[in-house]
Every structure is written in C-alpha cells, then in structure tokens.
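User: Structure please.
Assistant: Input sequence and predicted structure:
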Amino acid sequence: MREYPSKVSLVSTRKWGLTVAALACAIRPTSAIIWVYVGLLELFVTRDKLRFVILEVVPIGGLVLGLSCLLDRLMYGSWVIVPLNFLKFNFLSSGGDYYGTHKWHWYFSQGFSVMLFTFLPFAIAGSIKSKCWKHSGLIAWVIVLYSLLGHKEFRFVLPVLPIALMFSGYALSVMARPDSPRVMRKGSSNSYTKWPSKVAFAVIFLLATNIPMAFYMSLVHQRGTEDVMIYLSKEASNEKVKSILFLMPCHATPYYSTLHHHLPMRFLDCTPSEEKGIPDESDRFMLDPVGFASELAKNWSLPSHVVLFESEERLLKDFLISRSFKEIRRFFHSHFKVDRDLQASVVVHALND
C-alpha cells in the first residue's frame, strides 16, 4: 500500500505527519474531522497498533495540546482548553444552531453540489473510474459528519473540494487518453472526418458554465455591502461622515477593514445567549424593524448615517424621515434572495444638515 526505504523512515515520516495534524487541530479544531479519518486509516494498516497509539499519537498530541493550553493560559489569564470548549459549543450543545439551521441533506442536495457546479458529474465519474476509495471516503466522511449538525455552511466542506476537483481532472484525463474510442462521421466528399473529442466538448462546457458564473458571483452578486463601505470611506475622507448605524443583520458589511477611519460605528449585536430561545438584537430587528428602531432611538447617540437593506428601508422610511434622515445613495446588491428576503440594494440615509 505504501513503500518506504525502511521502517525507520516510515516512523519518522509518520511522526512529522502527526505533528502537522496536531498543530492543524490546535489552530482549527474542525481539522480533527479530516485528521481522524486519516489517522484511522493509518491505524488500520499499521501492524503494531498499540505502539502507534501509545508511543506516537499520545505523546505528540499531548505535547501540542499542552503547549496550546500554556499559550491560552498566557493570553486569557486562566486555564482554558479551547478544543474542549469548541467541542461543547458546536457539537455537544448545538450552539452553532443559533446562527441558522438547514435540513440534514443540505450538503448533498445543495451545499457541496453547488460548490462543484458543473464539475459534479465529472467528479462522480472520476471517483468511480479512479477507484481511489480512500479519497472518496474522506469526502463522504466529512459531508456525513457535518450533515449531523444543524448549522451548515459552504466553508465547512471547503477542505474536501480540491479532492473532488482532482477526481474531475482524472475523469477528463481518462477521456483524453489516446486509446479512447473516436467517433467518425461521413463527410460530403465521402471521406471520414473526426468529431471534436469528448474531452474538448467537456472542457468547453466547463469553461462556458464556470467562467461566466465566476465573474457574476465575484463582481456582481451581493456587491452592495462592499460598495457601500467603499463609498463611506471616501465620504469619511472628506469629513462628511461622523458616525454610522447599520440597521441590518449583524456582520452584513465589512467594518474598519474597509472604512479605514476611526469613526463611531454601531451594528446590531448577535452574540449567542446562554439561554436558548432568547432573540438577539439582529433577530429582534428582523422581526419588527419599526418597533426595534423606535426603541433604539430613545437612547441612541444620533448617527450621521444609517445603512440598511432595501427590504427594511421600505418599512422604516417614515421613521427615518421623522428623524430628519434622507436617502443619499443606493447600491445594487443582489438579483435574487439567498437566505432571507430579497436584498436587492443597500441604502444609505444621511442626517439633514
């Protein structure tokens, strides 16, 4: 299954691999999902399993965990086991569900299939033809485990996307082999002419579907939240912005990373509550925009600019006018809805001078 010059080389290489795996898990605990699969495969093929676990996995894992805890102790001022807290919040208590949930089949029916887009049939064909079941198993392992959680995001399964694309490439390489069957057609001059190869059709198909989609998703779709911050940054450079209130779901826009000015800004809080069922500011605003804004206005420091999506702006137009705000800019955001109601544009209202 694997060939190494010697047993010593195997053990040395494996220890380096375990060190990299341990560091990856210390930096990002979800890396353990992938490395547990790899580790189980290694355990399965290792002859001396007990030695592998006791003399390699435990010492290296314990050392990295200890160093991680010491570093956290230095930074937090108290003993904290971050991987344990991560496990408790995201897996044992389903804390991630606070940010939204999807059906169990979402990664299969939408998430991962959308990420692959038109590469999907090639990835499936490549995984079957290559018979690299370990790699196929890793993709299945990751998707199945994440499907057990209520909260799902595209980024969670990004680590296995390159493997699926590798299978797509393998499928194309099989189609491009010289010994693959060629289709001929009879021309008008009774001579036979080759049809363009199947791989040429496949490549043209992939380019024709993915390049336009890449441009659209990168340059057009949901660009309003970026454009509005660039605009506000320019306005702030001209000293036309004093403070900003974002009446939109939390973290909907970039923040100081794009503004580049030390100005007071306020966005709706979405910090998870220790008690389930208690809505945060963002949820309360989305449920009742007018009521929430009216309550907020009782204690706010009047901002010079208010930023919100068009869907909420329609409901708050009278409220904003009554507080002497007027619309100054509107930025296109999206042609279709994603998670919420259609957020077609981002609107900026400024306080009348």
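The beta strands are 184-186, 192-194, 244-247, 265-267, 305-309, 325-332, 345-351.
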